[in-house]
Amino acid sequence: xxxxxxxxxxxxxxxxxxxxxxxxxxxxxxxxxxxxxxxxxxxxxxxxxxxxxxxxxxxxxxxxxxxxxx
Length: 70
Hints:
Elements: E1 2-7, E2 14-21, H1 23-28, E3 33-38, E4 43-48, E5 53-55
Antiparallel strand pairs: 1-2, 1-5, 3-4
């Protein structure tokens, strides 16, 4: 199980949404839209499921994505 991730459009850094999800569950989800606060640029970003992926989130850096959904 990993965390649902997306990329900050301002900094280009990966952001963890804090939502725990398995790759299988994420692949089975319908298309959705969400808003998440970004700790990197301190703004709220709007994103679609197609811009997200399930990644391994660490406290030091949220950039260790294991799968990106294009």
